Here is the input.
Amino acid sequence: MYAWPASEVPALPGEGRDLQIHDTATQGTITLDPGPVARIYVCGITPYDATHMGHAATYNAFDLVQRVWLDTKRQVHYVQNVTDVDDPLLERAIRDGHDWTELAERETALFREDMTALRMLPPQHYIGAVEAIPGIVPLVERLRDAGAAYELEGDVYFSVEADPHFGEVSNLDAEAMRLLSAERGGDPDRPGKKNPLDPMLWMSAREGEPSWDGGTLGRGRPGWHIECVAIALDHLGMGFDVQGGGSDLAFPHHEMGASHAQALTGEYPFAKAYVHAGMVALNGEKMSKSKGNLVFVSKLRRDGVDPAAIRLALLSHHYRADWEWTDAVLEEAQQRLGRWRAAVSRPDGPYADDLVEEIREALANDLDAPAALLAVDRWAALQESDGGTDEGAPGLVSRAVDALLGVAL
Here is the structure.
């Protein structure tokens, strides 16, 4: 599977700062110290309703992580998956009378278009669950043969007891885990499981549903969590720098994925930091496909909204915050974009080297994009009121906003 084209990231004078970021597992701020190549895995979409504003906010957060690392002169090895076979996708295809593969391909193509328009840097490896199945099957077999997994009526489940570190990603108690498992694709009430929280690794073939050769597992398809584990281990290995996604992935997805990988390898941790973006609401409720209360990037683009304004609307909220999309949020972003573009269009302006350092400092402090926006606002206000004599300032500001915030002026 291919990703989308990369926009050029302008080079800036000086060098960026190491990123301090909130880690869900330790529940505190840690300083990331990657080697020359920083490694990040961000969980991708299930392609049946893309790209809503919640998606965009999440991928914007991890685009900022990449940009901070690139500014430190590191390379970035970024991997993202596409869950192109799963119950919600199949259910939507049946509901709408579509072939599930065509639905997945169409929505994935739309997602690529939206990511390109928003200037999100693409992953080096963009892998679908279906194409990962040949690598998933041996991992499930290994877990089963090692006693870390068991069969139940043809299905294969992972035993959470196999990982002594289970629970250390989300830090939830057993009851909270059970409730979330039921809400987020698990089956804690299925009779015969060793532990209600045990997640499925391999689902045996169901009549009328797609299935693949699973070797000694029989025909079927992979569970959700092992998909990302197989892709991450193949392309990044253990101990990569950041596992990212929305806050609703901390449990069960990231918790289970970490345990799968740790049981498979005997190594710890799966990822050095677990970073989660907040949820975006509409009309007082979290945007979700099940509720249908979605604002789509593609719809805004068709209505003539500049993608740079959409990106500024996302950046105006801290990535970990839960917030609500409103017309006022978009209007403020459009006005800000207009002010910034007017400011950098003049032949000279106020000295801007300090502004670049302010943006760097804000982003290095747990991706504080709102603080970075305010710093640019202050420069633009000076430009409007007093102007300046530095001929290179407008160009430097334009390059910095592009390189660090992903906004083309």
Q: What stands out?
A: The chain has a mean pLDDT of 96. The chain has 13 helices and 14 strands. The radius of gyration is 22 Å.
